[in-house]
C-alpha cells in the first residue's frame, strides 16, 4: 500500500494538473446537443478552450457568462440568466451544462439556488433545454473531480427516481472515466456488444470528440449520449463504473434507480481486463467469444516479449489518479520499477494501490526531480512533460490530457486486451529507442590497447 505525500510547496512553477471546470466541460460534451457554460470570467473559459482545441484538434463549443469587475462584486446571477437565454436562442442546445469557477465559488454565491430560481422564472423561455449545474471550483480537485461532478449532475437532472417498470437483462450502463479516450470508449462499446449486450455509455465522448466531419455546421456537441438514453439508464441490469472517480456517479444512479453499481478500477492490464470480460460474460450468460480469447493470448505473448525490455527499468509517472494507477500497474506487471509517482489531488482510492512506495501530490517539477534523483529510464506524463524529458535525455511516454504535440491522441486505445498489448509495445519501443547495439570496443575494452599504447622511447 503506497503512502500519499501531500503537497509541500506553496506554488507550482511547472503545473501538472488541469482544472476541475475543464473536466466538467469535457464530460458535458459527452451528451448529445450539449453546450458547456463556464460561470466565471472570459479568461477562465479561454484557457480551457485552448487546452481542448490543442488536444482534440476540433472546434469546441465552450461558452462563458463573462463575469467582469462589477458583476464579481455585485453578483453574477444576471450574467448567468442572460447567458442561458442567449444560448437557448442562438444555439438551441438540448443541454446546457454549467460549471462554476474559482471566481464565483470564492465569492460565495448560491449558484445552485440561483440556477433553480432562473429555471422557475424562465421555464417557458428555456423549454426543451435541460440545464444542469455542477460545483467545480478551480482550487479543489482536477480533471477527474470535475468530470465526476458533471456526470452526477446529468444523472440527477435526467434519470427519474424509482425502480424502472421493466428491467432489460441485456442492458448495461457504462460510466466512462475521464482517463479514457474516445477510442477507449468505442473499444468498451464494441467489447460489450460482442457479448450481445446493449450498452449505454455516459459520458460518451466517442461520438462527440472522435474527430469526424459533420455534413453541416453544428454549434453544440454533435454526438454523445442522448437524453432519452440517459433517462432509460434505470432499466439496465447493472452499472459498470470505470475508474474510482466514477464510483460517486455510480452510487447516485444506484440510489435513484436501484441498478447495482460495480466499480472497475481499471480496464488496462491482463488482470483488470480479465475482470471486465468475466463480468460481461456473467451478465450476458454467454461464453467468451473466440476473438477475445485470441486477443488475450496475444496480450500474454506481448507481456512475455515486453518484460525482457521493461523488466528492471525505472519509470516516473505523473497523471490523474486513475490513469496513474492503470499505467503504473501495467509497468509493474512487466517487471518495471516505479521510482516516482506524482498526481493531482488527494482523495482517490486508486492512490492506495499505486505500486510505488510514495505517491506525491505535486507538479512536473517534482516529476523531473524524482527522475533525476533515481536515474529513471522512462518519463510518462502529458505533453507538458516533454521539456523535462529533453533536459534529462529520457524517452517520454505521452499519456493523459493534454497531448498537443502528437496527432491521434483521441483515437489511441489502451484498454482491453488489444489496447493493453499496443501500450506495452509503445512502452517497450520507447525504451528500445535509446538502446544501442554494442560495438566490438564496448564488448572488449582492451581490444585496441596495443594501438593506444605509447610508443617506447629509444635510448
TrEMBL record:
Pfam families (UniProt xref): Oxidored_nitro (PF00148)
Domain Nitrogenase/oxidoreductase component: 19-431
Gene3D superfamilies registered for this protein in UniProt: 6.10.250.1090, Nitrogenase molybdenum iron protein domain (3.40.50.1980)
Keywords, sorted A to Z: Nitrogen fixation
Gene Ontology biological process terms from the UniProt entry: protein-containing complex assembly
Pathway: Cofactor biosynthesis; Fe-Mo cofactor biosynthesis
Domain of life: Bacteria
Chain positions covered by the region annotation Disordered: 436-459
The keyword Transmembrane belongs to this UniProt entry's keyword annotation: no
Family assignment from sequence similarity: Belongs to the NifD/NifK/NifE/NifN family.
General function of this protein: This protein may play a role in the biosynthesis of the prosthetic group of nitrogenase (FeMo cofactor).
Protein name: Nitrogenase iron-molybdenum cofactor biosynthesis protein NifN
Organism field: Oharaeibacter diazotrophicus
